[in-house]
């Protein structure tokens, strides 16, 4: 039977990366996607911006929306302090199965909890199911029209605290216009755009970093 692109990405990891070495897993995927087959990983250029935000936030709890093959999961988890936890949501079982093996190859299973299912179903269960109070960092990289509803849902479920950081991929390409419009005009967020390029291409794209400010007082009037 024909292999899928995620299966070919996993094969490239198993052939070219060293078990237990997250950076070699990241390099192997980037090499494959730059030279063999493009895939929608955040990639090496935007990945450096992701790394710098993760290092700056130094999060104890991270939520990733949209695991795909686990590329950004590995990048983030490799930078987490001991005892920190990354929960990543993926509703495609085939992608989830590949991602589990990529995460395991990197030796990061202990820091990552991959949950199979839709973000809209699982966000409301985070506290009761995983004992999460709030998330220090959220990486949004799933369906672009789910960014806004899921952000509102996280607020409603009390999963964001003053200082929580949202980092959204692809705000230019493919784009997340409703999310950008909301987050940049909301008094509850302080946003910053990091200009970059679509993974493995010269097309413009970027990441939007937004800090949740908590319920600002004009909402009590
Ligand atoms: C509500 C819900 N719950 C759980 N998992 C969910 C979920 N919604 C989606 N997922 C999962 O997340 C990933 C989906 C990622 C969507 N990403 C993109 O579409 C994307 C596209 C491009 C792109 C750019 C230019 C082009 F010409 C073509 C493609 C680049 C990117 O970086 C992308 O992220 C995928 O693994 C999907 O199963
Ligand atoms: Mg993306």
Taking the alpha carbons of the first and last residues, their distance comes to 63 Å
Task: Specify the helix fraction band.
Answer: 40-55%
Low-pLDDT regions: none
Give the overall average pLDDT.
97
Bound ligands: the ligand Cc1ncnc2c1ncn2[C@@H]1O[C@H](/C=C/CNC(=O)c2cc(-c3ccc(F)cc3)cc(O)c2O)[C@@H](O)[C@H]1O, magnesium ion
Q: Helix/strand-derived class?
A: alpha/beta
Strand content: 15-25%
Number of helices: 10
Can you describe what's shown?
The chain has 221 residues and is of the alpha/beta class. Helix content is 43%, strand content 19%. It is built from ten helices and seven strands. A seven-stranded mixed sheet has the order 3-2-1-4-5-7-6, sandwiched between helices. It is globular, with a radius of gyration of 17 Å. The ligand Cc1ncnc2c1ncn2[C@@H]1O[C@H](/C=C/CNC(=O)c2cc(-c3ccc(F)cc3)cc(O)c2O)[C@@H](O)[C@H]1O binds next to strand 2, helix 6 and helix 9.
Salient structural properties:
221 residues; alpha/beta; 7-stranded mixed beta sheet; binds the ligand Cc1ncnc2c1ncn2[C@@H]1O[C@H](/C=C/CNC(=O)c2cc(-c3ccc(F)cc3)cc(O)c2O)[C@@H](O)[C@H]1O; binds magnesium ion
């Amino acid at each position: 039977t024909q292999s899928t692109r995620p299966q070919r990405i996993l094969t490239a990891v198993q052939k070219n990366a060293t078990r237990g070495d997250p950076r070699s897993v990241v390099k192997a995927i980037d090499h494959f996607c730059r030279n063999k087959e493009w895939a929608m990983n955040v990639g090496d250029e935007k990945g450096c911006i992701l790394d710098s935000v993760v290092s700056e936030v130094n999060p104890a709890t991270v939520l990733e929306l949209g695991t795909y093959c686990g590329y950004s999961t590995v990048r983030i988890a490799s930078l987490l302090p001991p005892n920190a936890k990354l929960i990543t949501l993926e509703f495609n079982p085939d992608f989830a199965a590949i991602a589990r093996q990529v995460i395991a190859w990197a030796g990061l299973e202990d820091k990552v909890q991959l949950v199979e299912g839709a973000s809209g179903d699982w966000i409301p269960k985070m506290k009761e199911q995983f004992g999460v109070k709030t998330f220090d960092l959220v990486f949004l990289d799933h369906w672009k029209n789910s960014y806004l509803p899921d952000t509102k849902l996280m607020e409603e479920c009390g999963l964001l605290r003053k200082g929580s950081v949202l980092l959204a991929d692809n705000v230019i390409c493919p784009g997340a216009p409703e999310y950008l419009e909301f987050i940049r005009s909301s008094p509850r967020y302080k946003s910053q755009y990091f200009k970059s390029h679509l993974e493995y291409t010269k097309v413009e794209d970027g990441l939007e970093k937004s800090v949740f400010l908590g319920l600002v007082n004009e909402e009590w009037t």
